[in-house]
């Protein structure tokens, strides 16, 4: 089964995109599926039609790999069967390699924070 993996990133540099410290406010979202990477700008995904997490879910991830996530998004994603992992590594490539080798930990629920409203 092929998985669709979503990782928030800071720049659109393909596999070398630096992983973002943000989730919903990341400048870009990388979607990896079948060995291919597609990168969407935050503005392409977040159009203000509802909660950020709803709009991010529209990308159809099976897995999210992130450094941080708000509590509401965390619970909605988990309830929809999306697995969430804690990002370890500087770039999209490093994070994906660690994920494929089973080295990433599931994102701990206690690290999910209260939503931030900018």
Automatic annotation (TrEMBL):
Superkingdom of source: Archaea
Span of domain Dinitrogenase iron-molybdenum cofactor biosynthesis: 16-100
Protein name: Dinitrogenase iron-molybdenum cofactor biosynthesis protein
């Amino acid at each position: 089964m092929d998985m669709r993996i979503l990782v928030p990133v800071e720049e659109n540099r393909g596999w070398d995109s630096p992983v973002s410290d943000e989730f919903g406010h990341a400048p870009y979202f990388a979607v990896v599926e079948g060995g291919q990477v597609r990168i969407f700008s935050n503005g392409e995904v977040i159009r203000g039609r509802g909660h950020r997490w709803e709009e991010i879910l529209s990308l159809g991830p099976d897995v999210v790999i992130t450094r941080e996530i708000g509590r509401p998004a965390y619970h909605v994603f988990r309830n929809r069967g999306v697995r969430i992992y804690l990002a370890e590594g500087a770039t999209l490539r490093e994070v994906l390699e660690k994920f494929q080798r089973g080295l990433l930990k599931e994102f701990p629920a206690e690290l999910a924070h209260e939503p931030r409203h900018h």
